[in-house]
Design brief:
This protein has helices at about 5-10, 30-40, 50-60, 75-85, 100-110, 125-165, 170-185, 225-230, 285-305, 320-340, 380-385, 415-430, 455-470, 485-495, 515-530, 545-555, 610-620; strands spanning about 20-25, 45-50, 65-70, 90-95, 115-120, 190-200, 200-210, 220, 235-240, 245-255, 320, 340-350, 395-400, 405-410, 440-450, 510-515, 535-540, 560-565, 575-585, 585-595, 600-605. The chain is of the alpha/beta class and about 625 residues long. The strands form four sheets. Strands 16-21-20-19-17-18 form a six-stranded mixed β-sheet, with helices on both faces. It is an enzyme of class 2 (transferase). Its EC number is 2.7.7.65. This is Diguanylate cyclase. One of its GO terms (molecular function) is diguanylate cyclase activity.
Length: about 625
């Protein structure tokens, strides 16, 4: 046959009575060959005029049915009947003989032939013979299909029973993991990710479980974000929904090279801006999804009735992300109603940074003793270190092994920067390395309402800012550099050529006259003052300088503005330095350069890490502690 029986009966294929057979006819008579050509039209016909050609065709094509003239080659055709059964054991062989060759035909049947036809043949005889073989194949295929469906039904009963047990799971994370395992087993998927709703007050989806490569899928996002990801990665989406109840989505990744792993579920429509839910054509997948949704709803009711059993993360003393989302929703409502602010921070511990050969000491602070398997951390240990850097009123939640979120109520961005500094200070104190900045600890903050009006916006901005700190120029400063003059020269060497920087926070080369540099600094400070509280550190010296201009701008004192003017001329290598560091509610800015003959040459960047680093180091060089 041209296709296997399993392929014939796969969903979307033609019925069994319509599939094509391979028919081999080895006949010397021209008229009989012409008859076969006229009669065999819907199947693949292989015609041979002699035994040698017939054997070649049988070896290469593996026929399903064969007609052999036993009179060919002075009786050699009789031997071919036996030989053909060895070449194609599944083939049905019919012998053809004249009345004079009836004895040879009888021997052919004895050697394994299915029947004997007298020459000359009629068209009905050929069609009846082919039809009987076709029916036999169809019956066998149907039997295989029924056996497979019976076995599948037995397995399905076990899967349904396991999904029913989700209602008794320890928490939503454990339930989601079991859900992923069942669907991977049932569909043969290579990977799975389960996204569940974060809470009643939020439309955010949280990745509650993942298997295989999808462990790198987004940790959270809106439904649109998750479906966009599924479309980009060509994943299969199974909605976990029942009538008005929506529990989330299940994403499945097809096993490479497997064409029938998911006959029932289509991928999201790649042509649509937002992929629609794929229709579930297979009853089993739909039944499993419905059972899972029902069990998750029961689990949610159980957690609510017990007063928030899912409030805490089971692996650490941090809160769960679902509880974090619920508190953030209430905080947004309160901030809108009373015109208040709050800040969130995304904290990412890069799993690969500890193993980086160029920074062998990075992230030793976060590792377990004795050392754990590669690229793993102790969530409980990490949480304890983070909790020492935050206030009692802050909410620290764990999203996954390497990502945490911090909610700081009644907190503006400058206070969030202070929290970040406390985290870094804890690392430096633990490592006994003053000024130590671990490359693997990424922190990004976003403040309501400056950076976003919804939790989804704030989370995206905070994560983007955390990722941006990975490439900060500060990480390219060796930890053993202590002299401010050395650090400044290194910053100038490391800065990209004009036009070469791509990231928003990447440093840009600066080459302006002193007067133009003062105009630039004026614009930066005025923009910072529009957002509320501001921290400014500026280099000041006699004559035309950035410090003099900033003093003039801030002639009227403000309670929410902190200004430090430092004279760096006594510090080695800093006698010609112009510097400005600004930390504002809606951004940060750093400028540092050398005044050479009335022109300032150096770098400037909208990089919070650089602004923070330079402010601390420039203050230290001037004998001033700028951060408490």
């Amino acid at each position: 046959m041209t296709a296997s029986l399993e392929g014939v009966w796969s969903p979307g294929r033609a019925p069994a009575h319509e599939f094509s057979l391979k028919v081999l006819a080895v006949i010397a008579d021209e008229a009989t060959r012409t008859l076969f050509s006229r009669v065999i039209t819907s199947d693949e016909l292989l015609l041979a005029g002699d035994l040698a050609e017939g054997i070649v065709l049988a070896e290469t094509a593996a026929p399903d049915i064969a007609f052999i003239d036993v009179g060919l080659g002075d009786g050699a055709g009789l031997a071919m009947v036996h030989h053909l059964k060895a070449l194609a054991s599944e083939a049905t062989v019919f012998a053809l003989a004249t009345r004079a060759e009836l004895e040879a035909g009888a021997h052919a049947v004895a050697l394994g032939g299915a029947g004997l036809f007298l020459l000359p043949l009629g068209g009905d005889e050929v069609l009846n013979a082919v039809g009987s073989v076709r029916l036999r194949f169809a019956e066998r295929a149907l039997r295989m299909q029924l056996e497979q469906e019976s076995a599948r039904s037995a397995r399905a009963a076990g899967w349904i029973a396991r999904l029913a047990e989700l209602a008794d799971a320890r928490d939503r994370t454990a339930a989601a993991q079991q859900l992923a395992e069942v669907f991977v087993e049932a569909t043969g998927a290579a990977a799975a990710a389960v996204y569940l709703t974060a809470g009643e007050r939020s439309s955010e989806l949280v990745r509650s479980a993942a298997m295989g490569p999808l462990e790198r899928a987004p940790a959270y996002g809106t439904e649109t974000d998750i479906l966009d990801f599924a479309r980009r990665e060509q994943l299969i989406v199974v909605p976990l929904a029942l009538r008005k109840l929506a529990a989330g989505h299940l994403l499945l990744q097809k096993e490479p090279g497997r064409s029938s792993a998911f006959p029932s579920v289509r991928r999201p429509d790649s042509a649509a801006s937002t992929p629609r839910r794929a229709p579930l054509l297979d009853g089993l997948v739909k039944l499993l999804a419905t059972q899972a949704t029902t069990a998750l709803a029961l689990l949610g009711e159980r957690e609510r009735s017990t007063g928030g059993a899912a409030m805490k993360d089971p692996a650490s003393s941090a809160y769960s992300f679902a509880y974090y989302v619920d508190v953030a929703g209430r905080e947004i409502d309160k901030a809108r109603r009373y015109g208040r602010r709050f800040t969130i921070a995304t904290i990412v511990i890069e799993p690969d940074a500890a193993a980086a050969p160029e920074r062998p000491g990075d992230l030793a602070f976060w590792r377990i003793t004795p050392a754990p398997p590669a690229n793993t951390h102790n969530p409980g240990q990490v949480v304890e270190h983070l909790l020492r850097a935050v206030r009692d009123t802050d909410i620290l939640a764990r999203v996954d092994e390497n990502e945490f979120h911090l909610l700081m109520p009644e907190t503006a961005a400058l206070e969030a920067h202070a929290c970040h500094r406390r985290m870094l200070s804890n690392v430096a104190e633990s490592e006994k390395r003053a000024g130590y900045l671990p490359k693997g600890l990424l922190v990004g903050v976003a403040t309501f309402p400056h950076d976003g009006q919804s939790l989804a916006q704030l989370l995206r901005i905070a994560r983007r800012r955390a990722d941006a700190t990975k490439s900060s120029i500060v990480h390219r400063i060796p930890q053993d550099r202590r002299s401010m003059g050395e650090i400044i020269n290194l910053l100038f060497r490391e800065s990209p050529a004009p036009g070469g920087a791509s990231a928003i926070s990447a440093p840009r080369a600066l080459d302006l006259s002193v007067s133009d540099t003062i105009l630039l600094a004026t614009s930066v400070v005025r923009n910072a003052l529009r957002g509320g509280a501001v921290f400014v550190l500026v280099a000041h010296h006699d004559g035309l300088s950035l410090g003099a201009q900033v003093k003039a701008l801030l002639a009227s004192p403000r309670d929410d503005v902190v200004v430090h003017t430092v004279d760096l001329r006594s510090s080695p290598g800093c006698d010609d330095i112009e510097a400005l560091c600004v930390l504002a509610e809606h951004g940060a800015y750093a400028l540092i350069g050398r005044n050479q003959g009335g022109f300032v040459k150096g770098i400037h960047a909208a990089d919070p890490l650089l602004a923070d680093f330079l402010a601390e180091r420039l203050g230290r060089a001037a004998g001033l502690r700028v951060f408490g």
